[in-house]
């Protein structure tokens, strides 16, 4: 019987529990299928620090090589380091990671040459179909001439490329606490920061895919507590928190307070617009703060609003020729990084901006935190469509209200907005709200939650 991969092949990647849902035998078939669907002569493969990652990535490499593909293994790396290798070598790539998921999970993030994303509509569905077919009919015939598997180290070149995009040589000395969460930031940060005028205080840099200290998911405030405390204790200028595969970066100011990813998006957008002569397109998803398009326009740029999710951001980056894109989830995308996301490059921009003037980070980012947001609030519901319809009915007839359905339902007034989106994988509705002041935000948040949870 063919394997049912519907539980592990997601919209943008492969992800599931090892070995319960997938194992090295399936990884080998994924490698063969990736080789066939991309029609590649060569690919690059990397992996994170999870206990199952070396075995899975090695099996994937063998599967691709058996189909005649030459495989370059770059070993331990962050996801954005894999994107760098895909872009610099102009090769399709596979990154073995489950990002911030618990230790028993693993997955594959796939891209075509130049770090172009592979999702359900761009090859992932076909890859799944091939793997399912082969589990039923037997492994594919090997190529007449197998490919080779060689090793390469791209860490130094990745770090040099990032440093070439942001000038940090003349900044004032800064003290930065970095929480790698036992993830791949512990591998990449020392090399990227080498030689910069920074005093770096490392936290949880030991690579350990069992995550003994806290989950490597900085989106959850509970996982920032250790870093916030350490920033205050050290009298540091800022703190940086990376997720498990180190493609996302969260920023903590000198007072130990989180800086919203929308504020970071606005800050980096202003810098990238200045670097590109005061013009260019900036992509932001529809639940970033009102501040983002305002700052983009104030700095001569053109903001483009899009759906949530990296495939939509990257598609708009390519379509519009945008120079930068940002999301509320701390994913940051750069034209000069093959439109791929790299939290490390965003962090360098923050360090450069902070180090280029004398004010503390809290003062610097205040100009980018103009409104009050709720953060993302999840509610379990029996019927997503019915709840969204109820919200639409409750607000659609009010004066001065506009509705749009680009991604879920967005309701906007002069003083506030909110968006409600259904989860694709769970019976959840996700609420994000923002207003001009705290009291208004709380009022509209509670109103909407009452309708959702009725």
Automatic annotation (TrEMBL):
Keywords of the record, alphabetical order, are:
Isomerase, Magnesium, Metal-binding, Phosphoprotein
The answer to keyword Oxidoreductase applying to this record is no
What does this protein need as cofactor? Mg(2+)
> InterPro entries given for it?
A-D-PHexomutase_a/b/a-I, A-D-PHexomutase_a/b/a-I/II/III, A-D-PHexomutase_a/b/a-II, A-D-PHexomutase_a/b/a-III, A-D-PHexomutase_C, A-D-PHexomutase_C_sf, Alpha-D-phosphohexomutase_SF
Question: Mind telling me which Gene3D superfamilies this protein's record contains?
Answer: Alpha-D-Glucose-1,6-Bisphosphate, subunit A, domain 3, Alpha-D-phosphohexomutase, C-terminal domain
The alphabetized list of GO BP terms reads: carbohydrate metabolic process
Per the record, the similarity remark reads: Belongs to the phosphohexose mutase family.
The molecule here is called Phosphomannomutase/phosphoglucomutase
Per the UniProt entry, what species is this protein from, by scientific name? Streptomyces aurantiogriseus
């Amino acid at each position: 019987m063919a394997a049912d991969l519907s539980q592990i092949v997601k919209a943008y990647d492969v992800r599931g529990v090892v070995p319960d849902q997938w194992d090295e035998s399936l990884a080998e078939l994924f490698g063969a299928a990736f080789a066939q669907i991309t029609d590649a002569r060569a690919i690059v493969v990397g992996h994170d620090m999870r206990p199952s990652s070396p075995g899975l990535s090695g099996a994937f490499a063998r599967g691709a090589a058996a189909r005649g593909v030459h495989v370059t293994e770059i070993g331990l790396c962050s996801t954005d380091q894999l994107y760098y290798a895909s872009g610099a070598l102009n090769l399709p790539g596979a990154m073995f990671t489950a990002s911030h998921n618990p230790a028993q999970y693993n997955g594959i993030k796939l891209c075509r040459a130049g770090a172009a994303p592979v999702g359900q509509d761009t090859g992932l569905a076909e890859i799944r179909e091939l793997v399912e077919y082969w589990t039923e009919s037997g492994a594919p015939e090997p190529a007449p001439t197998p490919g080779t598997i060689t090793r390469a180290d791209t860490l130094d070149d990745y770090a040099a490329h990032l440093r070439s995009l942001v000038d940090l040589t003349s900044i004032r000395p800064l003290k930065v606490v970095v929480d790698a969460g036992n993830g791949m930031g512990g591998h990449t940060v020392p090399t990227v920061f080498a030689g910069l005028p920074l005093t770096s205080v490392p936290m949880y840099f030991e690579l350990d895919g069992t995550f003994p200290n806290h989950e490597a998911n900085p989106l959850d405030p509970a996982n920032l507590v250790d870093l916030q405390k350490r920033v205050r204790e050290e009298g540091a200028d800022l703190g940086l928190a990376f997720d498990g595969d180190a493609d996302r970066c969260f920023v903590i100011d000198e007072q130990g307070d989180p800086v919203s990813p929308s504020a970071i998006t606005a800050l980096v957008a202003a810098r990238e617009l200045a670097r590109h002569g005061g013009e260019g397109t900036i992509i932001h998803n529809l639940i970033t703060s009102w501040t983002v398009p305002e700052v983009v326009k104030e700095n001569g740029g053109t903001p483009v609003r899009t759906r949530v999710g990296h495939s939509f951001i990257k598609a708009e980056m390519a379509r519009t020729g945008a120079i930068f894109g940002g999301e509320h989830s701390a994913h940051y995308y750069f034209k000069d990084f093959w439109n791929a996301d790299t939290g490390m490059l965003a962090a360098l921009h923050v360090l450069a901006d902070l180090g280029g003037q004398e004010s503390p980070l809290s003062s610097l980012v205040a100009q980018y935190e103009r409104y009050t947001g709720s953060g993302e609030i999840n509610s379990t519901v029996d019927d997503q469509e019915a709840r969204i319809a109820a919200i639409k009915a409750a607000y659609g007839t009010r004066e001065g209200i506009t509705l749009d359905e680009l991604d879920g339902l967005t309701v906007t007034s002069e003083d506030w907005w909110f968006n409600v989106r259904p989860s694709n994988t769970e019976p959840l509705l996700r609420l994000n709200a923002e207003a001009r002041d705290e009291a208004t935000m709380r009022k509209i948040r509670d109103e909407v939650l009452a309708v959702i949870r009725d």
